[in-house]
Amino acid sequence: MKIGYKKRHLNINLILGIIWLVWFFVFDFNKEEMNWNDYGWLVISIAYLSIYFYQRQNKYLTIENGILKINGSFGKKISLTEITRIKKFAGDYILKTDKKKLTINTQIIDPKSLEELNAELEKLNVEWN
Predict the structure, then answer these.
(1) Are 84 and 97 in contact (CB under 8 A)?
(2) Torsion-angle region of 34 (φ positive above 0: left; ψ -120 to 50: alpha; else: beta)
(3) What are the residues facing 61 on neighbouring strands?
């Protein structure tokens, strides 16, 4: 099961990528002589567009084979069977095991996907705070 991002979250990255790309072409590309640091706008644009396409393709969370994984460059994962406690704090879910703690940001999750995540977490026989 894949838990996706809100469309607003994805669209912000897309819009920022396009804005920086337009900035590069309009203001920097029209110069007679470009410096090496003028290409920074292009790098920023490529970074935002890469983040957009990565998040659109890979989603925020993946639950497969009893493992919950946050997708990203420093993605964390936790086994659902090891979870001993789930805490709701400031709109986030904090999943705790004896050794690990994983925080899920529910503010950036699509509402339909959040319902699926809640249903999956309620299946677990753990303490909720």
Answers:
(1) yes
(2) beta
(3) 3, 70
